[in-house]
Design a protein that fits this description.
The protein contains 4 helices and 30 strands. With 428 residues, it is mostly beta strands. Strands 1-29-28-27-26 form a 5-stranded antiparallel sheet, with no helix packed on it. Strands 3-2-4-5-6 form a 5-stranded mixed sheet, with helices on one face. A 4-stranded antiparallel sheet has the order 9-8-7-30, with no helix packed on it. Strand 12 and strand 13 form a beta hairpin.
Length: 428
Amino acid sequence: MKALMTSWLTAMLLIFSTLAQANLTIEITRGSDRATPVAVVPFAGGDDLPEDVAQVIHDNLERSGYFDPLPRRQMLDRPSESGEVRYGDWRGLDVRYLVVGRASRNGNGYRLQYELMDVSGERRMLGEVVTSSEGELRGAAHYISDQIFEAVTGIRGAFATRIAYVTAQGVGDDMQFALFVADADGRNSQQVLSSREPILSPAWSPDGGKLAYVSFETERPAIYIQDLATGQRARATSFEGINGAPAWSPDGRRLAMSLSKDGQPEIYVMDIGSRDFQRLTNNSSIDTEPSWSPDGRSLLFTSDRSGGPQLYRHDFGSGQQERLTFTGNYNARGRFAPDGESIFLIHRSNNGYQVARQDLDSGRLVVLSESRWDESPSVAPNGTMVIFATQQGNSGVLGAVTADGRASFRLPSAQGDVREPAWSPFLN
């Protein structure tokens, strides 16, 4: 067991080399051939704002993979309200939907008025006035993006959600690790924890108010739960051996994890209030990486009981465990889609380790990503996208791919490596 822990920690230290700056940037790597043409016109009065609200909306829609925004240089006109729109001009540019708006100061904050038009139907689909405080302008832009996304696609938008991730700086004894949370586009980052020892496996509570994570600050792994609003935290487990891979139940009352306190790593569930433990697996294999089903009735986990890493499901009602993955000899780190009908995972193929999706009814597995060293997938709360850790040259970056694999982007840092992403639940 000590050798296993040493090799795991050595691998983590080799991955991390330098500390990522707080904010991440977006690089679109592949656009969808089915994206809907849209134009987001610069807001009237927007030049007086500290953030370009229309550009934030444009970028959000573009990285979703559902929309293909028109570049500003190609716009023939810049209306700011529906009455100024000449629909024929926009149809000539092959624009399907049009977003216009106005921005102005409102006391100590801002007033944003936006409208969404269906160009082919020459009708106003949506309109709203949004007020924002001084520091929440980007948040208002994310909210507007969510409303537009849902109005067109029928799917709840997830631009106003957040991501957690881990960074590291230095080499050897000079390593410095940090846990951050940021907006879903990598901006407005805030440091949650800094440590000279590794930080792993951040996991959001269902209400988005807490993070569970693994820290080696006491020179052995322990699971902590931290309140993001107050910064207060408590140590949940610190047994001898492995304390890893925490995962919140949908009701927020339990925490699944992998513990080796009784021998090999096994799956346990801890009641957060009472600190009582329920052991779910009991064999000579390594069982780890639990993930709850959306209804809380079953638990997905990785096990090598068949000779290599594969995904299994534990049913709480029957107590039975079944193998779910059979394509290839390596399938790990499974995560349920929000609708519970499919799972996302890391699959090893001839091209390396990649993000894949498997339909639970048919068992059909489809590889989504194009890189070779992917790990730690986390699913957006609306199920449209998966964020994961990957390599870009010699640096660790975050990547994201749509659930159909048609569009992708990366979130590199200005310097250094980023790993262990976790996508938050809906926050409003």
